[in-house]
Amino acid sequence: MSGLMQVHGLTRRFGGLVAVNDVSLELNVGEVHAVIGTNGAGKSTLINMLSGEIAPSQGRILLAGADITQRPQARRALDGIGRSYQRTTIFPEFTARENCRLAAQAASPRPWAFWQTAQACQRSGDAADAALEATGLSALSARVAGTLSHGAKRQLEVAMCLATQPRVLLLDEPLAGMGAEETERMLTLLERLKPRHAVLLVEHDMDAVFRIAERITVMVNGSVIASGNPHAIRHDPQVRSAYLGEEELA
Ligand SMILES: Nc1ncnc2c1ncn2[C@@H]1O[C@H](COP(=O)(O)OP(=O)(O)OP(=O)(O)O)[C@@H](O)[C@H]1O
Known about the structure:
ATP binding; binds adenosine-5'-triphosphate; BCA_ABC_TP_C; cell membrane; 10 helices
């Protein structure tokens, strides 16, 4: 395997429950790798292990060939792993730009070095502006985040993630609760981000997944039952019977 991020035999137990069981996958720059599965399949637990929020019980995570399994979350953010959450993590009373700037600052090597203000401020401000530009939110940068539409808030989540200048994007259900138009906007954004990022996408919207992903991994009860390109997954008999409704794939 030669992906930017490689995951080997990742397992996480919660007491007697094996939430993630011996999962291996890789993320490549230029690709969206979608992870799908029913509720409780282990998708969020997998993302949490990749971002460093929870430790694996077993297995290894490599980033550009370096073993980062033991690195804490803050260090992984510095190493270029960014993530968005199912629940929103926006500060609603701050502007869109302030939210991005704070995200950039939090991911900088010395966020506590407030005496280095001027230079650090300039850097995080530039990163915020670039992230807002990339997500098409520049026109809304001065808006108080709490007043944005649901779709714009989810885009802002991605912008906050981009402000940390990641190489790997871990996106947990970025399309949740979105209408058709907002979904289209987000998919266009993901297409734009693809060439320079390795993207892991956990998403329940199957139409979106099959449209945007180069590779799809299907999890059931913590284990991978299939992994391949959308065509292979669509026609995999085990996937059809275990997870996806026949009519959904027709
Ligand atoms: N901190 C925890 N302690 C105990 N069990 C947990 C914990 N986190 C997750 N689980 C369990 O691990 C399993 C996998 O959960 P996880 O949230 O990763 O699934 P998921 O695929 O993301 O589900 P969903 O699509 O509903 O978000 C579930 O049975 C869940 O109850």
